[in-house]
Each structure stands twice: as structure tokens, then as C-alpha cells.
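Title: Prediction job returns without error message
Component: structure pipeline
Severity: low
Priority: P3
Assignee: unassigned

Description:
Job completed but the reporter wants confirmation the result is attached to the right record. Sequence as submitted:
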Amino acid sequence: MIMKRIYTLILASLALLSSCTGNKKAEENVETLRIGVMPSVDHLPLAIAQEQHYFDSLGLNVELVRFTSPMERDAALQAGELDGTISDYTTVMTQNAKGLSVKLLSSTDGLFSFIVNPKSGIKTLADLKGKKVALSSNTVIEFATDQVLAKAKLEPTDITKVEVQKIPLRLEMVAKGEVDAAILPQPFAQIAQEKGLVALKDVLLPGSEETLITGLALDSKRTEGRDAAIQKLIKGYNQGADYLNNNEIAHWAPVVAKELKVDENVVSHMSFGYFSPITSPQAKSIDAVAKWLKAKGLIPNDYKAENCIMGGI
């Protein structure tokens, strides 16, 4: 009887050991993609997909590496520490033109607002003439500013561009009246409005040409031959976008507040628009960025804009 019990225990132990070994091997076979993100709206489908375990169910481990500085994010990508990033078209194209293997897999849904101090007298875009606008030079924010000015038939020289690289400082300078206006991404645009600043109506609307300027970029060398992992990334991202589109904000506000590092009350007042599935960047938007970068001498004149787009998604 004792020997039978010992035999049973041995069999049970071997079964448990085999199960643990099998699980360990299964975990080791799960591929990992490391994506660098900032506290911005355009990575929310990834964050939701992670929160809802969509990637887990697909057999993919997506590690979101969070940064507060785009320079640190880009340095990590260049050092080979990331497989991709949520970035913007100007950054990706500039990096690609310099020979880096970063390419845009998809556009993402960035949200921006043209914020003005109500004491500035700015009611429409035409009122920007002669005003001080805070921005960071040679970035997507300056590009968007120039695009918006063009819609109002204004030249970049019609305003005074004030160099302010840090977004929180840009917001405070508008609030104090040290500058008249600035383009701010969410959640800073909402925070600005809660401080009494004003967002120009019908400017930088979600999904407009001027807001389709951010994207999910991958290091094409690090992801070469990993098509299955990329397809799982795409599927999980799309599931995250569907969740955001089909559920009330109350269901996902806590996740957004954590990702954007703001209070849930701020999130509840934000307008998010539609979160698109993975979609190759529009040629029109890419060409506009390339033209702007070439005019500023930031990329060679013979650079082909399509070089920064991944094919076959």
C-alpha cells in the first residue's frame, strides 16, 4: 500500500514537472515586440489591446516602453533597444533619409488643437497674422502650424515663431499671454481649455489632413522575417481600436488616464474621434511632409517619400 502511494506521488510529480517544462517552453516561444510610446493619444489602441489581453490571446508579447522625451525614445530606437515606436511623419522621414531602417507601418490617430489665449483677439485663423505662436522648430508641430497657416492663405513669415520645445511650458506661456497661440496635442489641449484657453473651431479636426501626421513605425531590420509577429500586432491593434470605438469612454477612461498621466476628469472631457485600424499612410500626407522637409533642407531633394513606408500590410 505504501509503495503504491509512493508510486502515485512519483507519477504526479513527473506530470507536474512535465507540465511546468511545457509551459516554460511555450512562454519561451512567445515572440516579443518592444514598442516605444509617449503619453499621447495615438498609442491608445496598443494600450487597450494590452489591457484587454488581446495580444496574449494571439500568442504575442507586446511590451510598451514608455518615454517622456521623444529624444530618449528615438535614441533607444537607434540603439536597437526597440522594435518600433509611435512617432510622427517628420521624425520617421528624417531618420529614414539618414539611413536608419525605420519605416511607417501605419498612420495613427493623433489629436491636436490650435489653442489661443482669449485675450489675444484671435477668433479665426486669419487673426493669427502678426501674432506670436509657440512651437518647436523642424518638428511635426511646426509642420502642422505651417499647414494650418496655408489654409488661411497666410505665410509662415506672417507670424512670429517662438521656440518652446517643452509642451507644458508652451501651454503655460499661452496661458500667461507671453505668446498668443500654440498647437498642443492631447491631453495638453484639454488641460489648456480647463485653464480658460480656447481651441479654434474647425481647425485640426480628428482625421483631418493636418492631424494625420503620426504613425506606428517599425525597425525594418529588427522585424525582418517576423511577418507572423507583425500580423499579430496588426490584429491586436485593430481589436484595441474596435474596443475604443464601440465602448463608452467610462469603460476605458482609467486606462487612458494612466497612459496619459492625467486625471480621469480630464479624460472624460476630451473628444477622441474615431480610432482607425492599421492603415498605410496616405501618399498625400507623406508627400506634403517630404516637400516641407526638403524646403527646409532637412532631407535631400532627391529623397523619395515612399521609402519611409512599409509595404505588404
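Comment from assignee: result matches the submitted record. The radius of gyration is 23 Å.
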